[in-house]
Write the structure tokens for this entry.
Amino acid sequence: MKRLHSLLLLLIVALTANAQIVKIVPQFNVGDELYYLGTIVVETTEKKVITDYIQRIKIVSKDNSSYTIETEILDANVKYKTWDYDADLLSTIYKARKGITFRFKTDLNGCIVKLLNGEEAAKKAKDNLEEAWDIVFWGKYPDRFENAQQQLELRATVFNVFSEQGFIIWMQSEPNLFSLFGKELKEGDYKYINLQYGLEVKNEVYSLSYDEKQQLLVKLYTHLDLTQAERKLRLLNFLKKQYPNDNNIESRIDELFELSQIGKLEISQMSSYCLNTRFIPVEIGFVGNTNQAETTYLYTLIEKSEVKKYIPLR
């Protein structure tokens, strides 16, 4: 009877979660230190790249309107079957970030509002890399860097995280440790996210429930659910706006649709979050599929005492 009562209570809690709006506001305490073991796997038909890293987050201070927080990549390791451009680029990105403390502010909802030491962090990142690292990179992959614009884009890719906008994207984009903070979630709610050529993907709160520890379980499903006719119409409208003086777009839309490959585009992503009773992430999982690759993420909260057994990552 006691077990039946517990099961009924869990069912009521689950139904309540589904019916209500849950606002994700983390209850940080000054002095909190959180350690996450992260693994990112990118796999195509030709290759597989695995990135492991350990990230520290420390709550430094709190005032009436904000938290001051630090985060640092303590260690990182890129594993690969074949050393190529993508593996080399990932290795360079994490080498630049490793051991650098980012200090930032959030509002009381946990939403990042300001990066406090971007310039200082960028200088340290440059010290992490060899002198003239970018020129060496261009020389190793000449087909990737045929002009000055492509060379500049390499630097932007590696150092973008040290700008305020880039840092916020890194920390708050789905799936990541701060991506749910400040959001109001209700099962079944959805929004559309714009892509290129007038396309958009549907981002849906797929499920919202609590487990037996009263931890909040959230699943977000993002997918491209447009029919072929809808995709073609979106492309037509996009091209008309881009080239208003071209009178041949409509008559060539079938050809342009075929050339764009939009009809073959596939996007499907599922993010799973487990938040403890203070709404701090305990585990985050992600599986994403496109035509080109399958990507999986896993972030797991670990005890500070466990960190030493993982470092150095191999």
